[in-house]
Amino acid sequence: MNKTNRRKFIAATASLSVAALAANAVPQAKEDIKHPIVHHVFFWLKNPSSKVDRDQLVSGLKTLKKIESIKAIHIGVVASTEKREVVDNSWSVSELMFFETLEGQKIYQDHPIHQEFIKNCSHLWNKVLVYDAVSV
Predict the structure, then answer these.
(1) 20 to 30 A from 127, CA-CA: which of 9, 17, 67, 77?
(2) Is the dihedral of CA 35, 102, 107, 59 positive or negative?
């Protein structure tokens, strides 16, 4: 295969791969959405420069994985992305959870593990902001 044909083949293969990934990233119908309830929480630590406090909060959040109604969870800290006017990086730790139903999210809210997390970790933060969303 000569260089020109090889480049065209690689370009075509890359385009097909990107198209396949994009098609899989966006659900085709509401029935395809497995976890339509999103619960995103942002925490501002009382001592934002304390790695010990941050790690304690992250450890506490990881205990929530045991709650059966949580279908997926992501725990994160601020990324070192480009500073832009629309980017808020004032928070310290976030959790992103996915639920199948509103009832599942309610189970999480009332669950003893969640209540224990609040009891054990609420002294670490001075602000919490929650965004709940349902798929459309």
Answers:
(1) 67
(2) positive
